[in-house]
Amino acid sequence: MPLALVSTSHSPLLEHADLDTEVSGELEAAFDEARRFVRDYDPEVVVSFGPDHYNGFFYNLMPAFCIGYGAESIGDYGSQAGRLDVPEDLARGLAEAVIDDGIDLAVSLDMQVDHGAVQPMEILFGDITAKPMVPVFINSVAPPFTPLHRVRRLGEAVGRYLASQDRKVLLIASGGLSHDPPVPRLATATPQQRSMLLGQGGPMTPEARDARQQRVIATAKEFAAGTATIQDLAPDWDRELMQILASGDLSQLDTWTPEEMTRIAGNSSHEVRTWIAAYAALGAAGPYEVRYSYYRPIRELIAGFGLTTVESRATR
Length: 316
Fold this sequence. Notes:
single chain; alpha/beta; 11 strands; eight-stranded mixed β-sheet; about 20% strand; Protocatechuate 4,5-dioxygenase, Chain B
């Protein structure tokens, strides 16, 4: 069956930033457009490509890709917590098909996901269990990163399998675009930070999680005021990426290296891997067309914030 796609930046700061009326109005209009698109498409199931921010995946074992047969949202930054409605038959069939297609990935019977995976579900549907959802994790914060041509091939394998199924599937890509929030890096981590990156010490305490979140909120305020030391946004890079994705020829991205992405667009720009995989999945099902595209660099969110709705031409 044909597929459809919503790709969107996420930000844990959406409920914490003091945005001016023009920006908040623009964002809500973009979200409304995405909601209309999804309502008209009326999917039976969602396949969501998302990152993690050292909440479910750690350096004790960091896969490049992982498909969840079952999943739970941890509820960070006030996002909705609880079990996701994961259709295990579809998740299992998808994982097996992707592996048969030559892409190595991990599977999880109890994937822990954070705001990066569930925020779009909350925005689009109002509830993380409104639709059955298969979560596809793509490592986007923990170097070393797999080359982009492997991300593209992952997406193509996913798309080929989903197109063969008798289910109406909405793809969601969550992450990016250019941004460089204060996430600890292994190369420069303190002993305490290194322990956290390794997932040692068990689940983060509510007090530790709150302190981590408050650091991000404070940095966002400094970034908006021009006093933060984090890397600036890269609007030209963001727009170029969105143009390439819209063109349908994703092979143009194969030469983009992780080092170059970090240098130009920040340490967390690698979240655009979710967009690349989802667009590749849609393209594997046939030619597609971007129906709506929004972009604005928003310093209060530490994000080059983008959103697109895309459909297979066969659905029109």
